[in-house]
């Protein structure tokens, strides 16, 4: 049988599939349910200093290529959120990434101190939520300078490995990735949702999302994710948590080949059910069997782009 | 794939001062217990249980409880709203003697269920309770069907004062039932629960829902983490028996736990 175990920043994961931030990670039980259905690593909802209700609905809209969402960073706040994380850790052997969101490095540092006191395994900095523009403006991940400043400040404080979550909606993602790496980021997570975009109801002549705009996820963004992961993999030596439209084992293998070390599966939870993690793990194994690979490390990567 | 459809409100029936039923001419293809998400694109999208559904039309029964439903109450026949669904699990359609326990504006989905149970040849008893008669709905509709029906209010405005759980207990003492169903306030189901140890049953639950497609995790229930929008809202005994948050707390829009 092919082996799916994989090392990520010093932790052994049962398989390379990750529950990304914003999906099912609101409660300890949601995290555990995802684990039991085959996720190898769990990410909490992005936590902020204060609880947030998020945007008014509709917060999701479906279209042929995937879905748009504008949840608006709803979360129970860092203190309640970490209680859920700790409860999950008590009940499960699975590792957890705590995702945090703030708008400046001082707040990110405060959040980091809270996370230090929890049982989390990794810290993810959500620098790239595209759905709170009206409130906070352009995501931090749009500026290499901002990314550098925040990662640097957090790294000084964090007891856990730090993962920077990047936005695909930038002109030069490699420059941003380099800034994160230079500031000391231990890994990168990409991509966050694409766009944002919009959909219109033609009978009522209204934007379907109440927030008007929302980030795209699902199959339509996979080619963008692959390209950006591949560009960063080619340019920098840093572990990558790759995600964006992964729905099948074939998609996950493409992510690994583009340079991802582990792979996030989010929107596909809707398309294929919560069992999607088990299903994709089986599909990866089938591919490995067919190709004669005994472990994930044997799956070849693309040849890097030459500069 | 996209389950959203924008429809004109075909008909509005005022049930009580604070409860209305909205009809839509649309083949929803729903099963009893399932729900739709409804929005007017003015801020907010909420889940509503389906009170009845056939090949021509479906309806939902709405209680005015907040800003969103207050706005919905200003809509007129012919106005558009946008819906998506049906979503979620549905009731098992049993045969034999069945008892349906309804509470307040939670009762209407049991009407849709009753029709399917009767089609299946079940012998149906319905007990319907509410705080006052202003929250007691569908009495006439149930009474038009071939079934045993009783209602009661806590205020005693219809004679006797009591709850639908009181009536249910009387039924359980009098007759042998093959399956029990309940829909209404969680605390009603919580007080009914101890009497159902030796029965097969299904309860219709309510939690704060946002995406309704199983992604956001807002409606997960402890300790199982099942999503009320996908694995629920109808949950069978074997699941209810395991729920630690049943009748204790639920999560609000931020995901914070709130006690009942």
Summarize the main sheet of chain B. Answer: 6 strands, antiparallel, barrel
- Alpha-carbon distance between the two ends of chain B: 37 Å
Annotated CATH homologous superfamily of the largest domain in chain B? Nucleotide-binding domain of ferredoxin-NADP reductase (FNR) module
How would you write the strand order of the largest sheet of chain A?
3-4-7-8-9-10-15-16
Share of helix of chain B, binned: 10-25%
Radius of gyration of chain B: 17 Å
Strand order of the largest sheet of chain B: 1-2-5-4-3-6
Task: Describe the overall structure.
The complex is a heterodimer of chains A (307) and B (260). Helices cover 35% and strands 19% of the residues of chain A. Chain A has 307 residues and is an alpha/beta fold. In chain A, helix 8 (249-258) packs across helix 10. Chain A is globular. The N and C termini of chain A lie far apart (39 Å). In chain A, 58% of the residues are buried. The model of chain A has no long low-confidence stretch (mean pLDDT 96). Chain B is an alpha+beta fold. Chain B folds into two domains: 4-87, Elongation Factor Tu (Ef-tu), domain 3 (Beta Barrel); 97-259, Rossmann fold (3-Layer(aba) Sandwich), CATH 3.40.50.80. Helices cover 17% and strands 35% of the residues of chain B. Chain B contains six helices and 16 strands. Chain B has helices spanning 67-72, 108-119, 139-143, 164-174, 186-192, 237-240; strands at residues 4-16, 19-24, 35-39, 45-53, 58-63, 80-87, 97-103, 123-130, 148-153, 179-183, 201-204, 220-221, 226-227, 234-236, 249-251, 257-259. A six-stranded antiparallel β-barrel of chain B has the order 1-2-5-4-3-6. In chain B, helix 4 packs parallel to helix 5 (186-192). In chain B, 50% of the residues are buried. The model of chain B has no long low-confidence stretch (mean pLDDT 96). The chains are: A alpha/beta (307), B alpha+beta (260). Chains A and B meet through helix 1, strand 5, helix 2 and strand 13 of A and strand 6, strand 12 and strand 13 of B.
């Amino acid at each position: 049988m092919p082996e799916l175990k994989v090392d990520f920043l010093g932790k052994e994961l049962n398989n390379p599939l990750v529950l990304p931030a914003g999906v099912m990670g609101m409660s300890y039980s949601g995290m555990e349910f995802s684990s039991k259905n085959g996720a190898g690593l769990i990410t909490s909802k992005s936590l902020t200093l204060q609880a947030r209700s998020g945007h008014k609905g509709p917060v999701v809209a479906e279209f042929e290529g995937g879905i748009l969402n504008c949840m608006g960073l709803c979360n129970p706040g860092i203190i309640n959120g970490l209680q859920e994380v700790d409860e999950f850790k008590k009940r499960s052997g699975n590792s957890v990434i705590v995702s945090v969101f703030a708008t400046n490095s001082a707040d990110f540092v405060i959040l980091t101190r809270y996370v230090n006191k929890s049982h989390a395994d990794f810290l993810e900095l959500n620098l790239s939520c595209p759905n709170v523009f009206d409130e906070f403006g352009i995501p931090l991940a749009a500026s290499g300078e901002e990314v550098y400043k925040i990662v640097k400040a957090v790294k000084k404080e964090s007891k856990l490995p730090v993962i920077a979550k990047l936005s695909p909606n930038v002109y030069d993602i490699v420059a941003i990735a380099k800034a994160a790496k230079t500031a000391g980021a231990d890994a990168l997570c990409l991509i966050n949702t694409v766009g944002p975009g919009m959909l219109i109801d033609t009978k009522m002549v209204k934007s379907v999302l109440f927030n008007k705009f929302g980030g795209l996820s699902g199959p339509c963004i996979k080619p963008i994710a692959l390209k950006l992961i591949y560009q960063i993999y080619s340019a920098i030596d840093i572990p990558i948590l790759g995600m964006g439209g992964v729905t099948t084992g074939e998609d996950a293998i493409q992510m690994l080949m583009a340079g991802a070390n582990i792979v996030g599966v989010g929107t596909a939870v809707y398309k294929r059910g919560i069992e999607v993690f088990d299903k994709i793990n089986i599909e990866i194994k089938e591919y490995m069997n067919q190709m004669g690979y005994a472990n994930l490390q044997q799956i070849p990567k693309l040849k890097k782009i030459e500069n | 794939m996209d389950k959203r459809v924008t429809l004109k409100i075909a008909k509005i029936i005022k049930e009580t001062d604070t409860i209305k039923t909205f009809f839509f001419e649309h083949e929803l293809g729903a099963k009893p217990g399932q729900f739709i998400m409804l929005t007017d694109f003015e801020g907010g999208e909420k889940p509503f249980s389906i009170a009845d559904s056939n090949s021509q039309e479906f309806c939902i029964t709405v209680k005015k409880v907040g800003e969103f439903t207050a706005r919905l109450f200003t809509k007129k026949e012919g106005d558009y709203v946008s819906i998506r669904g049906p979503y979620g699990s549905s009731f098992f359609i049993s045969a034999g003697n069945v008892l349906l326990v309804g509470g307040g504006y939670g009762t209407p989905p049991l009407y849709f269920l009753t029709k399917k149970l009767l089609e299946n040849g079940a012998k149906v008893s319905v007990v319907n309770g509410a705080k006052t008669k202003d929250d007691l709905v569908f009495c006439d509709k149930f009474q038009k069907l071939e079934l045993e029906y009783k209602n009661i209010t806590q205020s005693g405005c219809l004679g006797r004062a009591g709850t639908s759980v009181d009536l249910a207990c009387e039924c359980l003492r009098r007759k042998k039932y093959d399956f029990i169903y309940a829909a209404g306030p969680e605390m009603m189901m919580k007080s009914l629960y101890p009497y159902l140890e030796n029965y097969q049953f299904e309860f219709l639950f309510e939690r704060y829902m946002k995406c309704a497609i199983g992604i956001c995790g807002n409606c997960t229930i402890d300790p199982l983490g099942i999503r009320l929008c996908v694995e629920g809202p109808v949950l069978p005994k074997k699941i209810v028996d395991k729920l630690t948050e049943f009748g204790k707390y639920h999560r609000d829009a931020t995901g914070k736990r709130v006690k009942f």
